[in-house]
Predict the structure.
Amino acid sequence: MSKQELVVLGQTDEPDACCPGLLTAPLEEEQAAELAKVFKALGDPVRLRLLSMIASRAGGEVCVCDLTPAFDLSQPTISHHLKLLRQAGLIDCERRGTWVYYWLLPEMTDRLAGILTRPAGEPLTEPAEATA
């Protein structure tokens, strides 16, 4: 049996340890499928606003009772959007009495930022010009 050290995703100090940046190497099929779920969750304007409201809240968490009035949507619809953000790993929550409180999971947003960030000092390559 090999004595290689296994790295658990998201549990290392190295910024590029979990996966290469999108701009530095092609994504593996499994990575692309996982990231597509996250980007799909972010692709809806309501979910993007909810995430922004949660992330920017002083104190780091917000009650669902403070989120719902900001939208012209029913409470079950807001709950559905929040569920999709949770399933994507962007937020988490906890029930306290009759209310549910939400907070950002910065590990996922940091991971997205790392994947989309061009390595420092490396210029983007210019596309080859088409010949006529």
About this structure: Residues 1-17 have pLDDT under 50 and may be disordered. The CA atoms of residues 55 and 68 lie 16 Å apart. DSSP finds five helices and three strands in the chain.
